[in-house]
Structures are given as structure tokens and as C-alpha cells.
């Protein structure tokens, strides 16, 4: 029996120029969102381990809400829901970046908390016994060590967030999946195009993995 | 207070200090004065409260009532001492059982961090002092290495140099040789011996009874959070008056 359908490499390669315009959007949403998410994560992660309940409770609330709800719902809420509250539209790019920021921020808060709490108590005690203030102990002793331990889980979160941006095709932002969908609408070559879309995601995430591995090795060599 | 009084006044005054960990009464009515230049060795079974006692002196442990005065700075119960605590920690050095060197910094950077950030010294001044101190503890050739590349004995000597770089008026030692391999204990004790000879005021928690006998001006035996006996080493080791001291020493000196 003859195979009725074959993977058409020509169609796959032909899709590339149409997909590439999605890459800057994917990168912009991912890394823009992650940069803000990292800042959120530092603030809420530290609030989460604060001695003051006034700091801890809002942090726990934030983390639970944004870790416990789907990112798809979060982005739909921001794009379609928030404008009703604010009285004006939010553009799709802003909504996408905001969704990655608040979502990754929740996970990164936990990464920051874990990293800081993993540093032995003796490090802080030695710092304080030398006369360093609590802020100085954190800045010069605790944080640099904690940050090194945070690199692998941060890399993990980066990769997850890059892939999460694929969901934002639903709000019409022109990222990779969206470009694929537009192209398929005229060519009907779904198999080849989504295959190429997947490869392009892999290229991005793999590059990130390599960069992180390099950073980790340099970090460990310094210990 | 005249200058003369300051010279002889105790650098550490503990008066009726009590500490509880929940239901556990860890320190009971501790009275202890340490005068400048004095070497006080604190001995006792594990869990007797001897580490807790010296950790109260630089505020690493809170206490619930009593008074602690260190170099003219008053520590208040429940850890609410603020500025006074900061001043005390600047003037009081500490060496820990687990060394607690900063693993992300080189040996040299471990030693210059506090002088630069707390005392505000220039890097050049801090490095000069650090190099002198590292030479003194016999680690000069390792200054660029990271702590984990050193042996335990070397790490503890770096920790000593790091504390001394702040030019402390008082040094606290919390079982400085307990985490060391036997062959490295001697080099750390030698460094401490030399420090004592130079007149440093020291409060030392240790299980090294031979060392205690040799360097201590006064030995304090702590039993279940109480000072059971405080006397010169000859008295404590050769004619202990308290039955609890006798029983403790017979257990640790036998083997």
C-alpha cells in the first residue's frame, strides 16, 4: 500500500521566512516578562521570608494566586478583563509581558526564598559578628551565594516562560505560534509548519540552556 | 569615670543573665566579669549552655533578663539593643566551630571585607593589615585561594585572621578546634596561644583541657546552665571544690 501522506520538507523550509518575524516577539515577551518577573521575585521572595507578618502575608497571597491559576487565564484576564476595570484597552504585547512577569514572578519568588534559605546560618552569624549590618550581611555574603544556587532553577523558569508565550497567540500577539497559524491559513501545511515552529522554540531554549550551563560552571569554579 | 578606672574596669560584665529556649532554662543567673587582658576558658558538658553563654556576649543569642555590658555598651534583653549591639560586634571578634568563612570570596577578601565595609578603611590599608595577619597565622601564600581549597586547620586560622582584622578588644572562641581533624588542632591552638601571650582578652569555649590549663587565667565550669565553679586552672584541675566539677573532670580527663 502506498503512503498517502508524506512530510514535505520543501513546505517546511518554505515556512521559515514566514515564521521568523515571530521570534523577536517571542523573545521580547519572554525576556521582557522574565526581567520584570525577576525583580518581582526578588521583592516578593524576600518579603516571603521577612520576620514581619505584614510583609509575609501579601507575599504568600501573591505567590499562591499566580502560581495556582493557569497562565492562559491570567493573560485573558489581563487582556480582556482589566480594560473593563481601567476603562481603556491594553495592547496585546503589554498584556503578554505582564502575564509572563506576574506568573514567573510568583515562581521566582519561591526560587529566591529557597536560595536565600539554603545559605547556612553560620554565614549570617559570621557576618554579624564582624560588625556588618543585616543589610550588609545580605548584600555581601548571603545574596552572592544564594544567587549562584538560584541559577539552575532560574534557568528552568526561563525555559518554561519562553514556552508559555506560545499561549499568547490567543490574544493575537504576533509571536511564533501566531505567525505559524497565519501562514497555515493560506497553505494548509499544518504538519510541516508546526514542526518548524517546534524546532524554532527548541533553538531558543537550547541556546538558553547552553548559556546557563556556561554560567553555572563559571560560578562553581569560583567556589 | 577616670582613665584609670576604664583601664581596670571589666570589658564584659554579665549580671544575673537568664535565658530560656521555650521550657528549657539554658542560662541561670549567670554572673561573669572579664577584665582586659584576661583569658577565660569555659568548660562543661555539651548542652550545658557554654556556647550559648558566649554567644550572648555579642548578641547572637537573645537573653530574657539580666544585664550584659560589653566595653561600655549595654545589651538589653529580648534582642532590642540596636546601636549598642552594632558597636559591640564591631569591637568583639568571634571564631566559630565551623569556621564560617565566606566560600564565594578569596581568603584575602574574607579578611578585608569587614574592615572596608564596617570600619571604612581603604582597600590598600585593609590589604596591608590582612597580609600582616595572614602571615602571622602562617597562611600568606594562600591569600588568593578560596576557603574550600584549604585544610580545616588553615581555614580556622584564616577565620582567626579575619576576626583580628577588625582590631577587636575582645575575642570569643566557640569550640574552635571541635570540627578539626586531630592533626590540625595543634596549629590552631598555637595561633591562639600566641594571641593570648600578646595580651588579647579572650573568652574560649573548648574541650581542650590541656590548653585550658596552660593559657587560662580563669576556668569556668558550667553545669546545666549554671556557673558551678570559677577558679584559676590549677585550682579547677587539681583541687576542684565543687562535686559537679570533680565528676565532670574525672569523666573528661580519664581517657
TrEMBL record, chain A:
Keyword check for Cell membrane: yes
Domain ABC transmembrane type-1, first and last residues per copy: 23-212
Subcellular location: Cell inner membrane; Cell membrane
SUPFAM superfamilies given in the database record: MetI-like
Gene Ontology terms: cellular component: ATP-binding cassette (ABC) transporter complex
Pfam families xrefs: BPD_transp_1 (PF00528)
Gene Ontology MF terms in the entry: transmembrane transporter activity
GO BP terms, alphabetized: amino acid transport
Membrane topology: Multi-pass membrane protein
Domain of life: Bacteria
Predominant location category: membrane
Record keywords: Amino-acid transport, Cell membrane, Membrane, Transmembrane, Transmembrane helix, Transport
PROSITE patterns: ABC_TM1 (PS50928)
Record carries keyword Ribonucleoprotein: no
Protein's job: Part of the binding-protein-dependent transport system for glutamine; probably responsible for the translocation of the substrate across the membrane.
Family: Belongs to the binding-protein-dependent transport system permease family. HisMQ subfamily.
Record NCBIfam families: HEQRo_perm_3TM
Protein's name according to its UniProt entry: Putative glutamine transport system permease protein GlnP
Organism: Halomonas urumqiensis
Lineage: Bacteria, Pseudomonadati, Pseudomonadota, Gammaproteobacteria, Oceanospirillales
TrEMBL record, chain B:
Record domain ABC transporter: where: 12-249
Protein name: Peptide ABC transporter ATP-binding protein
One Pfam family hit: ABC_tran
Recorded topology in the membrane: Peripheral membrane protein
Gene Ontology molecular function, alphabetical: ABC-type amino acid transporter activity; ATP binding; ATP hydrolysis activity
Record keywords, A-Z: Amino-acid transport, ATP-binding, Cell membrane, Membrane, Nucleotide-binding, Transport
InterPro entries: AAA+_ATPase, ABC_ATPase_HisP-typ, ABC_transporter-like_ATP-bd, ABC_transporter-like_CS, MetN_ABC_transporter-like, P-loop_NTPase
Taxonomic source organism: Halomonas urumqiensis
Gene Ontology cellular component terms for the protein in this record: plasma membrane
Protein family per UniProt: Belongs to the ABC transporter superfamily.
Localization per Swiss-Prot or TrEMBL: Cell inner membrane
Highest taxon listed in the record's lineage: Bacteria
Chief location bin: membrane
Amino acid at each position: 500500500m502506498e503512503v498517502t501522506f508524506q512530510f514535505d520538507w520543501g513546505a517546511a523550509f518554505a515556512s521559515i521566512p514566514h515564521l521568523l518575524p515571530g521570534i523577536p516577539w517571542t523573545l521580547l515577551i519572554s525576556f521582557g516578562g522574565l526581567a520584570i518577573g525577576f525583580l518581582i521575585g526578588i521583592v516578593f521572595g524576600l518579603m516571603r521570608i521577612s520576620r514581619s507578618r505584614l510583609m509575609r502575608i501579601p507575599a504568600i497571597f501573591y505567590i499562591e494566586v499566580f502560581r495556582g491559576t493557569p497562565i492562559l487565564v491570567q493573560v485573558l484576564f489581563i487582556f480582556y478583563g482589566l480594560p473593563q476595570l481601567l476603562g481603556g484597552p491594553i495592547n496585546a504585547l503589554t498584556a503578554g509581558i505582564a502575564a509572563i512577569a506576574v506568573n514567573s514572578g510568583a515562581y521566582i519568588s519561591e526560587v529566591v526564598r529557597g536560595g536565600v534559605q539554603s545559605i547556612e546560618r553560620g554565614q549570617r552569624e559570621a557576618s554579624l559578628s564582624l560588625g556588618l549590618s543585616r543589610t550588609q550581611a545580605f548584600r555581601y555574603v548571603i545574596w552572592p551565594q544564594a544567587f549562584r544556587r538560584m541559577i539552575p532553577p532560574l534557568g528552568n523558569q526561563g525555559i518554561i516562560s519562553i514556552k508559555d508565550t506560545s499561549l499568547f497567540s490567543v490574544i493575537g500577539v504576533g509571536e511564533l505560534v501566531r505567525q505559524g497559524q497565519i501562514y497555515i491559513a493560506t497553505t494548509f501545511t499544518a504538519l510541516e509548519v508546526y514542526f518548524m515552529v517546534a524546532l524554532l522554540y527548541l533553538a531558543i531554549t537550547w541556546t538558553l540552556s547552553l548559556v546557563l550551563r556556561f554560567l553555572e560552571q563559571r560560578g562553581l569554579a569560583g567556589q | 569615670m577616670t582613665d584609670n578606672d576604664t583601664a581596670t574596669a571589666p570589658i564584659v560584665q554579665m549580671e544575673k543573665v537568664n535565658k530560656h529556649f521555650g521550657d528549657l532554662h539554658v542560662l541561670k543567673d549567670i554572673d561573669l566579669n572579664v577584665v582586659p587582658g584576661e583569658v577565660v576558658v569555659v568548660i562543661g558538658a555539651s548542652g550545658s549552655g557554654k556556647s550559648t553563654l558566649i554567644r550572648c556576649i555579642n548578641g547572637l543569642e537573645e537573653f530574657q533578663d539580666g544585664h550584659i555590658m560589653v566595653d561600655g555598651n549595654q545589651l538589653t534583653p529580648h534582642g532590642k539593643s540596636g546601636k549598642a549591639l552594632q558597636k559591640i560586634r564591631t569591637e568583639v571578634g568571634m571564631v566559630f566551630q565551623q569556621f564560617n568563612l565566606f566560600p564565594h570570596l578569596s581568603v584575602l577578601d574574607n579578611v578585608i571585607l569587614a574592615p572596608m565595609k564596617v570600619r571604612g578603611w581603604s582597600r590598600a590599608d585593609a590589604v596591608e593589615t590582612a597580609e600582616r595577619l595572614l602571615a602571622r597565622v602562617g597562611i600568606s601564600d594562600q591569600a588568593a585561594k578560596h576557603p574550600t581549597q584549604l585544610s580545616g586547620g588553615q581555614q580556622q586560622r584564616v577565620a582567626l585572621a579575619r576576626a583580628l582584622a577588625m582590631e577587636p578588644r575582645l575575642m570569643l572562641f566557640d569550640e574552635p578546634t571541635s570540627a578539626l581533624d586531630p592533626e590540625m588542632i595543634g596549629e590552631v591552638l598555637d595561633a591562639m596561644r600566641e594571641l593570648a601571650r600578646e595580651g588579647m582578652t579572650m573568652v574560649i569555649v573548648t574541650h581542650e583541657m590541656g590548653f585550658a590549663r596552660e593559657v587560662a587565667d580563669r576556668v569556668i565550669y558550667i553545669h546545666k546552665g549554671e556557673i558551678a565553679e570559677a577558679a584559676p586552672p590549677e585550682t579547677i584541675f587539681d583541687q576542684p571544690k565543687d562535686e559537679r566539677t570533680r565528676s565532670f573532670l574525672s569523666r573528661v580527663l580519664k581517657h
